[in-house]
Amino acid sequence: MRMFRTVLAALVAALLVTGALSVGASAGSAPKRIIDEEPPRDHQVSYNAFKLKGVVTEPQLDGTVLPYANQKVKILKKKCGTCKWKTVKKVKTNDRGIFKTRIYAPEKGRWKWRSKVDHSNGYGNTKGTIWTLYFD
């Protein structure tokens, strides 16, 4: 009886490990959305503010792309190279998948900015280009 429980416990543990590995492998292989952004340095709107504009699209299996319409895009900021990304604001896309927001440059130092779309509907987390804003 003791041998039977030991063998059964080993089989259950093996099934749990293989199940966890297969879930982890599939999560990393999810397709990503496409984020196309215009460089903010070309769109200065005030002394220290710049306009960040981008388009989020979802590639389909047949090769077409659909807009990521009326959904949330997170705007992340990082104050130093070793700091963590922090969500500063959440903006919504319009019917064509376009989002617009202002990002700022500090008076001293450098700030890094990035857009991010969280995973949903079979797509993985998608991160945009990193933009660094500063004054010389």
Describe this structure in words.
The chain starts with a helix and ends with a strand. The strands form two sheets. Strands 4, 5, 7, 8 and 9 form a five-stranded antiparallel beta sheet that branches. Strands 1, 2, 3 and 6 form a four-stranded antiparallel beta sheet that branches. It has one helix and nine strands. Strand 7 and strand 8 form a beta hairpin. The longest helix has 27 residues. About 4% of the residues have low confidence. It has 136 residues and is α+β, with helices and mostly antiparallel strands.
Provide tags for this entry.
single chain; 136 residues; alpha+beta; 1 helix; 20% helix; flat
- Terminal CA distance reads 77 Å
Low-confidence stretches: 20-25
The helix/strand series, from N terminus to C terminus, equals: HEEEEEEEEE
Outline the biggest β-sheet.
5 strands, antiparallel
**Average pLDDT over all residues:** 87
Task: Give a concise summary.
With 136 residues, the protein is an alpha+beta fold. It has one helix at 2-28; strands at residues 34-38, 49-59, 65-67, 72-78, 86-92, 98-104, 110-117, 126-127, 131-134.
Blueprint (SSEs and pairs):
Layout: H1 2-28, E1 34-38, E2 49-59, E3 65-67, E4 72-78, E5 86-92, E6 98-104, E7 110-117, E8 126-127, E9 131-134
Antiparallel strand pairs: 1-2, 2-3, 2-6, 4-5, 4-7, 7-8, 7-9
